[in-house]
Every structure is written in structure tokens, then in C-alpha cells.
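FAQ

Q: What does a record look like?
A: Structure on top, sequence underneath. For example:
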């Protein structure tokens, strides 16, 4: 039994958010991988784009930042240079700028520093799970997956608990800006010109900027070192301290990048548990499964479907001529279902080894900074969930986010019985 089967007709318009309303159009990705692995699409929303869909090609091109620049934006939308400059974070820069910023953040997000938060995360997980599970039947995205990541990130960054629900809401507005369930400013349905200089073209970006500035001032005044934010403000190896605007941009990026991605990875894992009954027993047997299960859940979820690059020079690939300035999309979601790289890619195999998934943008200089945190969060959540569950089953239709950028199950009805 597979967890879920794609329903698209193999010719979905990848530039349309509506094409992702029933889940990612994996039949289209398969056709492109087989027939046209470097595929050009015209696009009604702006300049056309190339799609890279094979795992091997994604790894190859992601590892060549000299021809695949991040410094003109990472989403499909076109931006003027002025808009790009106003909205960019270090994720939208190339070396040497990129490395200068990344190096300041690397320690705070390193495996050993993040591992120190294990008990904090576990303590936070238990009451949320208990409250959800006692309902018997509930929406697992809303009651579990949506609740945890922002709270976990909040603890790690040292944010006050009372601010967390507000931050979850702002994070949603920022990144799910193409789904009317999450924002009043649906990006492709109305003119958002008013907000074009703000992160994600969204008013929530501006509010987060103000919040981050206040928070920094409060923490400085109180000498608060409970989270990792203060680490970011210590001088880097070159002796320089992160400027305030960079800190604010990073904060916005962390809220956006750490919130939805982990949420939808958790939702995808719960979806798998509900549809592939052997998984729960494998988790409950424990032991080695926890070495491999988090990455398999994160592969299965493919929470960010693509990131964009821009060709920094003309080059040839699969017989196609890519011109300088053209957009090239690396479809992680397609790479993660490539039969050339994964046996039985539509099955969740918690013991999959090796698991060379590309959910974190592996192989490139921008590989996810939060990956150790995401893995830890996913592991603890499923360890705690498996301890409590006797059974878990689907209880109605799942609904997907209207976004071709964030792959997510936004409603996941399940019924559970407990140990
Ligand atoms: C399962 C959850 C997650 C997934 C699937 C994910 C996915 C990704 C991907 C694909 C990239 C690479 C972007 C590129 O190549 O242009 C990335 C970068 C990044 N992620 Fe994550 N992410 C997750 C969790 C997190 C968390 C929890 C945080 C931390 C707060 C985070 C912070 C970042 C940052 C700051 C970058 C930019 C790194 C750079 O440009 O050097 N992510 N993420």
C-alpha cells in the first residue's frame, strides 16, 4: 500500500499554484524526468523558466553556484533589482557575501548546539500531543504539526512564550502567501505592489521586522542569554558583528524557513503513519529506526518543492542552451521521487539507507542551516507520538496548501486510539 498516489494528468502547469491543490503533480515530474529533464516553460506570471527534475542533475547544478546564482531571488516571481535589494536575506546572495553571513550563524545551528535543546523540545511536545490525542478524531496538521515548530523555534531563539501564537500566524502569512486560507494578500490574485519592498511581498514581513528589533533591544537590556539569538550577535571569526538590519532579515527568514517546513514535514510523517500501517510498529520497536526515520519523513514531505537559481552565464545542459539571466528551478520534490535515486520512491521506508534526499538543498552552498534542528524536532515528535499511539487511521479527505513553493497538507483528519 502506498501512502498517497498523485492524480495529475502528467501535463500540469508547474507555474500555477492551483496545480498543487491535490498535492504535488508527481506524474508531471515523472514525465519530465523521463522525457525532458531540462524543460522550458513559458509562464503567465512573468518570465519563463527552466525546470531541473532529475536527482542527479539537481545535485550537479546545485553544486555549481558560479553558474547558478541565488543573487536574483529564490522564488519564481520576477523582482526588479530594487525589490531584490530591499527584500533579500543572505539566502539570496552568492559568495563571498553569503559565506560571510552564514559563518556567523553556523555555530548556533550546529548539531552539538542544537542537540542541547533535546529535553526542552521533548517537554514542549508532550502536552501538545496529549491535548490533541485525547480528542480521538482531529485535524493532525492543526492540532499537532502547526503547534510545535514555532514553539520549538521560539524556545531555541529565546522568544517569550506569549508571543508564539502571533508569530505562528505571521509566519503563515509570510510564506503561505498564495493560499487564501492563510493571507488576505494572495500573491497571484491581487496587486501587492504596496508591499513589494517587504520580505515575501507581504505586510507580515514588516511586522516581523519591528518585532525582531524590539526583541533584540529587550534581550540586550535584560542580558538574556536563554536562546541562541545572543550567539548571533557575538563577533564572527573575522571580528565583525552582525549589523542590525541583517539580524532582522535573518529573524524573518528563520520564522519563515523554520515554521512551515517543519510543520509540513511532520504532517507528511503523520499522513504516512495513517496510511502505511506497518510504520507505527517499526517506530515502536525503536532502536536503529530513529537513525534513519527522520530523513525519510523529510524526504517524503519535500516541504519546499523547489528553489530558484538564475543562470550567471550561458551554458549547455541536456542539449539545451540556457542563457545568462534565465531562471532555473531545482525541483527538490521531483528529485526526491526519482526512481533513478530511490527504490520505490512512493513508499515510506523508515530504514532507507543511504537516503540521499534533497529536501534540505543538499549539494549546494545554501544547504539548509536548520537541518539539524528540523531532524531533531521530527525525531522527538515521532518518538513521543509512537509511545502514545495504539492505532492511527485517516478520517476524511486531506487538503493541500495552494502553493507551488511549499508542499504541505494543510488539513489532515485522523482518528487515533491510545496505548
Ligand atoms: C524539514 C524542514 C526544512 C526543510 C525541508 C528546509 C528546506 C531548506 C532548503 C531546501 C534550503 C536550501 C535553499 C537553497 O538552496 O536556496 C534551506 C535553507 C535554509 N533553511 Fe531550511 N528547511 C527546513 C527547516 C529549517 C529550519 C528549522 C530552519 C531554522 C530556523 C531553517 C533555516 C534555513 C536557512 C536560514 C536557510 C538558508 C541557508 C543559506 O542560504 O545558506 N530551515 N532550507
Amino acid at each position: 500500500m502506498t501512502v498517497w498516489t498523485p492524480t495529475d494528468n502528467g501535463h500540469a502547469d508547474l507555474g500555477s499554484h492551483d496545480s498543487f491543490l491535490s498535492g504535488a503533480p508527481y506524474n508531471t515530474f515523472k514525465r519530465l524526468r523521463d522525457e525532458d529533464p531540462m524543460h522550458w516553460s513559458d509562464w503567465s506570471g512573468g518570465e519563463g523558466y527552466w525546470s531541473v527534475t532529475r536527482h542527479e542533475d539537481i545535485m550537479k547544478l546545485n553544486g555549481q553556484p558560479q553558474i547558478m546564482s541565488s543573487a536574483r531571488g529564490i522564488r519564481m516571481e520576477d523582482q526588479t533589482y530594487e525589490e531584490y535589494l530591499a527584500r533579500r536575506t543572505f539566502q539570496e546572495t552568492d559568495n563571498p557575501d553569503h559565506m560571510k553571513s552564514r559563518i556567523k550563524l553556523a555555530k548556533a545551528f550546529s548539531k552539538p548546539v542544537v542537540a542541547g535543546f533535546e529535553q526542552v523540545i521533548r517537554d514542549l511536545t508532550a502536552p501538545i500531543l496529549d491535548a490533541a490525542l485525547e480528542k480521538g478524531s482531529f485535524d493532525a496538521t492543526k492540532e499537532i504539526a502547526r503547534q510545535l515548530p514555532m514553539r520549538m523555534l521560539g524556545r531555541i531563539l529565546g522568544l517569550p512564550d506569549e508571543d508564539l501564537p502571533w508569530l505562528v500566524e505571521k509566519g503563515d502569512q509570510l510564506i503561505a502567501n498564495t493560499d487564501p486560507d492563510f493571507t488576505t494578500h494572495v500573491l497571484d490574485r491581487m496587486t501587492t505592489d504596496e508591499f513589494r519592498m517587504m520580505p515575501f511581498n507581504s505586510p507580515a514581513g514588516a511586522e516581523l521586522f519591528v518585532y525582531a528589533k524590539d526583541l533584540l533591544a529587550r534581550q540586550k537590556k535584560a542580558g538574556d542569554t536563554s536562546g541562541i539569538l545572543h550567539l548571533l550577535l557575538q563577533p564572527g571569526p573575522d571580528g565583525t558583528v552582525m549589523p542590525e538590519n541583517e539580524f532582522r532579515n535573518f529573524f524573518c527568514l528563520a520564522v519563515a524557513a523554520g515554521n512551515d517546513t517543519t510543520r509540513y514535514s511532520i504532517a507528511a510523517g503523520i499522513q504516512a503513519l495513517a496510511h502505511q500501517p506497518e510504520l507505527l510498529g517499526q517506530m515502536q520497536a525503536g532502536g536503529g529506526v530513529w537513525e534513519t526515520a527522520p530523513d525519510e519523513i523529510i524526504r517524503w514531505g519535500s516541504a519546499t518543492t523547489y528553489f530558484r537559481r538564475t543562470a550567471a552565464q550561458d551554458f549547455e545542459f541536456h542539449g539545451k542552451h540556457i542563457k545568462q539571466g534565465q531562471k532555473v528551478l531545482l525541483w527538490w520534490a521531483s528529485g526526491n521521487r526519482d526512481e533513478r535515486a530511490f527504490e520505490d520512491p512512493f513508499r515510506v521506508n523508515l530504514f532507507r539507507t543511504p537516503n540521499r534526499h534533497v529536501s534540505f538543498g543538499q549539494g549546494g552552498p545554501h544547504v539548509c542551516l536548520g537541518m539539524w534542528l528540523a531532524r531533531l524536532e521530527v525525531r522527538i515528535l515521532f518518538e513521543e507520538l509512537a509511545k502514545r499511539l495504539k492505532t492511527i487511521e485517516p478520517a476524511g479527505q486531506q487538503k493541500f496548501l495552494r502553493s507551488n513553493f511549499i508542499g504541505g497538507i494543510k488539513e489532515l483528519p485522523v482518528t487515533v486510539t491510545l496505548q
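Q: Is there anything notable about this one?
A: The first helix runs from residue 26 to 35.
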